[in-house]
Amino acid sequence: MFWKKKVAQNNTRKWRELLRENLNTIAVDMFYGDDPIVALTPEDRRLYLKKFYELMNDKQVMGRIIYLVNKQANLTLQNAKSNDEEASMAGAMNINGLCLVKDEIEKLGAMYLKENKPQDGFDKYSII
Fold first, then answer.
1. pLDDT tens digit string along 96-106?
2. Which of 88, 59, 61 is nearest to 72 (CA)?
3. Is residue 57 a contact partner of residue 107, using CB atoms and an 8 Å limit?
4. Is the dihedral of CA 58, 35, 23, 74 positive or negative?
5. Are 27 and 17 a contacting pair, CB within 8 Å?
6. pTM for this one?
7. What is the pLDDT of residue 79?
8. What percent of the chain has pLDDT over 90?
9. How far, in Å, CA of 45 to CA of 36, rounded?
10. Dist CA 102 CA 96 (whole Å)
11. Residue 75: phi, psi to the nearest 5?
12. 26 backbone φψ class: left, alpha, beta (φ>0; ψ -120 to 50)
């Protein structure tokens, strides 16, 4: 009851926001979901992409993600035996989310390589 009074007194905050804060969940922004890379300066962009390049090459981080995908796949298969469709769907969504994170790290790491590729010493106009 106290919680209802607290929320009623403060009209600027919504139930969902308070629940997310109290449950330590991530607030989902449905309207302003722009990619943060768009607002970066060229130097900040290079540093941003470099972090993902380093993550992509970190075998422990990538190995952990793959481990979690396989662990969730095993749990999902175990639940599939009991014909629990909701649990199977939730497991599939978890697997997709983990794979999305892995793919995004690899995509941004590849962008770093592409944008910061060292120039080879070949000059097509030079005389050998």
1. 999 999 999 99
2. 88
3. no
4. negative
5. yes
6. 0.68
7. 81
8. 47
9. 10
10. 10
11. -65, -40
12. beta
Percent of residues, the chain, with pLDDT higher than 70: 67
Whole-number Å distance between alpha carbons of 17 and 93: 24
Predicted confidence (pLDDT) at residue 8 exceeds the cutoff of 70: no
Model confidence at 1: pLDDT above 50: no
Angstrom CA distances, 63 to 17, 70, 112, stand at 34, 11, 21
Q: Which of 72-75's residues contact partners 24+ apart within 8 Å by CB, and which partners?
A: 72/98
Dist. CA 101–CA 33, nearest whole Å: 16
Domain boundaries, the chain: 36-115
Nearest-angstrom CA–CA distance, 80 and 92: 11
Q: Grade residue 93 by pLDDT with cuts at 50, 70 and 90.
A: very high
Side-chain half-sphere CA neighbours of 101 within 13 A: 14
Separation of CA 81 from chain center: 30
